[in-house]
UniProtKB/TrEMBL annotation:
CDD domains linked to this entry: Ubl_ubiquitin_like
Stretches that traverse the bilayer: none
Domain of life: Eukaryota
Residue span(s) of domain Ubiquitin-like: 9-100
Official protein name in the record: Ubiquitin-like domain-containing protein
SUPFAM superfamilies for this protein: Ubiquitin-like
InterPro entries tied to this protein: Ubiquitin-like_dom (IPR000626), Ubiquitin-like_domsf (IPR029071)
Organism: Alexandrium andersonii
Amino acid sequence: RDLRPGGVLKLTVAVMPGAYVRTAGQVHIRTAEGETPVQVKQRLAEAGVAWGPPHEQAAEAAISARLVFRGMVLHDEVPLSKQGVADGSSLRLIPSLGRGRL
């Protein structure tokens, strides 16, 4: 487990059912270990991750979703490495429970 400042993490994000993605349910990303879940979700949104029919997709769907690691929801503003996320980790992206909720 490499926790050097500026280290790169290779993560797998499993996108939970109901999402429309360009890939088949998993997205592989490379991110700096100092990045926060919010930054990861922004990158997922840019990659086209969203929930609902294409004509009804909200641009903020991935950003308002929750990233889960080892059964715990990650805190949006705390760096991934400070929450135990390491190179090779798998995360789950699940839709928010309601509008404005993370």
